[in-house]
Amino acid sequence: MKIQENVALAPFTTFGIGGPARWFAEAASEAEIVDAVTWARERLLPLFVLGGGSNLLISDAGFAGLVLRMALKGVEAEEDGGRREFRVAAGEDWDGFVQRAVAEKCSGIECLAGIPGSVGGTPVQNVGAYGQEVSETIERVRVLDLESLNFQEMSGEACGFAYRSSVFNSSAKGRYLVLRVDYRLTPGGKANLRYADLQRVFSAGSDPVLAEIAAEVRRIRLSKGMLLVDGDENCRSAGSFFKNPIVSMESFEELTARLGKEPPHYPAGAGQVKLPAAWLIEQAGFPKGFRLGRAGISSRHTLALVNLGGASASDILALRDLIVGRLARDGIALTMEPVLVGF
Asked: For residue 225, is it left (φ>0), alpha (ψ between -120 and 50) or beta?
């Protein structure tokens, strides 16, 4: 394993933003990962693990420690009680794995087509879209416990999955390094049609195959600038920048009174509702295509903050703060999805 110095990090991210890593290494085996972690600890350096670079914003100053890029590869499949279990290394491309599952007619992740990034990042934020979440199919996650430097396998239940959350980005943040994710999919299973956009395309009673659903999801993502396309400035983003807020019914009623109309909303458990952040942001005066210097809102999707060309991390955060501050006036607390690195 080669340790490099002062490596530019912006090219490794979908935002195309960020300063250099003081130290940088790629690990293609579990042994190399342990070596890299040990190397950083011996020098009292902070460690950041880089996956597909699709859900992070790196500071303009870069990262002062060791950036470890996950290059673990490999996919194994095994039949198990009418299901097919795929054991997928953390460095595998997520959309590539979705394409394989769909080609093999295994249902469970077809609505997650077109999402950029690596497999290792999917359990961290419980990746979800168009009516599916990875937590519905994750059987176990192989990790390196950075406290003990021991390898272990965690069941899906032990991962503590919730909306865009898991123990990996909440209660045990920074403790575990994801090495492999095991998904249990259903050969010959029905396609997921829970999401309204898909229901509008496929009529009631129709029975679309998985490939049709995946293709339609990619078409929708493309229309919203959420599919990576070279040369499209809308793609220089981290995807959805804000989570959909979940509020109490009392807060929802107060917001309705302030706005003079009822916002779109969805059930989110006892006494709570989920509000679409995109709708709230537009109501607050930030339409698609809004610009603030070199940062802006995608012309296709209100939730995506984009690098319009030469934007810095500070530019993106200035726009974030403007939007968050405006929504706070209505009692809405917006939480960002991307991980901040080097701040």
From this structure: left
200 tagged catalytic: no
- 290-297: average pLDDT: 97
Token readout for 148 is: 């003990």
Answer yes or no: pTM beyond 0.70: yes
* Whole-angstrom distance, CA of residue 90 vs CA of residue 71: 8
Instruction: Report whether pLDDT(206) > 80.
Output: no
41 is catalytic: no
Residue 228 lies in a domain: no
Q: Please state the separation of Cα 161 from the chain's center in Å.
A: 14
What's the confidence (pLDDT) of residue 164?
87
Which residue in 87, 164, 218, 326 is the catalytic one? 164
Domain boundary among 223, 243, 263: 223
pLDDT of residue 205: 67
Q: Do both 62 and 122 map to the same domain?
A: no
In the set 85, 136, 212, 337, the catalytic residue is: 337
Known catalytic residue: 164? yes
SS3 assignment, position 17: coil
Question: Considering its fold, how many domains does the chain have in total?
Answer: 3
Residue among 240, 251, 298, 300 flagged as catalytic: 240
CB 95, CB 218: distance < 8 Å: no
Q: How many CA atoms lie within 13 A of 256 on its CB side?
A: 14
Residue 272 buriedness (CB in 10 A; 0-12 / 13-18 / 19+): middle
Least confident of 152-161, 211-220, 229-238: 229-238
Last residue of a domain, one of 186, 205, 223: 223
pLDDT, tens only, 223-272: 888 887 777 888 899 989 999 999 999 999 999 998 889 999 988 888 89
Domain holding 20: CATH number? 3.30.43.10
Whether 208 is covered by a domain: the verdict is: yes
